[in-house]
Predict the structure of RNA polymerase sigma factor.
Amino acid sequence: MRKTNLPDDHDLLKAIRYGQKKAFNILFDRYASQLHHVALKYTGSPDKAEDIVQETFVKVWTHREKLQPHLPFVPYIIRISKNLIINRAKKRLHEQAYLRYKSLVHQDIGDTTENHVFLKELKDLLETKVAQLPEKRKKIYQMSREQGLTNREIAKKLVVSESTVENHINKALKDLKNYLQTYKYLSWIPQLILIRIVLVG
């Protein structure tokens, strides 16, 4: 039974909107275990469920100005966590597709000198466009694609949110894709191969 001297969700959410971290910590302690149980049912992994809980509450804090204290909090965080789980599942599907296409393109392109020259030309085009990206976007892209850092690691290093990192990466990939597609002699390469092989490496 909850102690009567603890503030209710409504008061905590109002305080969080004003940036009060103590209120945020209370709310986290109150619902983290419940949310972990929900996430575990969908992910089947305690570690993944823990990541979902952490990322969900990061989003709550990051977007605290959008909180609506008069609405129930639990359905709100469950909706956030389910969206995160769905997005991760989509990402895994893309990664699996990338691996399949990478295998295919290696079989199709082969190891000839001509093809090495062709792939080098693609990478040169890519490097040219990367150098032209806005400075912050370029740095985040390079940390992700060239240094192999995760979005979370980049966010910590640059002291920004993971959603900011993800937005910059998505915009960079879109810019690079559009740039490469202007070269008509690349049209024979399936789009997924072009983006996942050339842009990811």
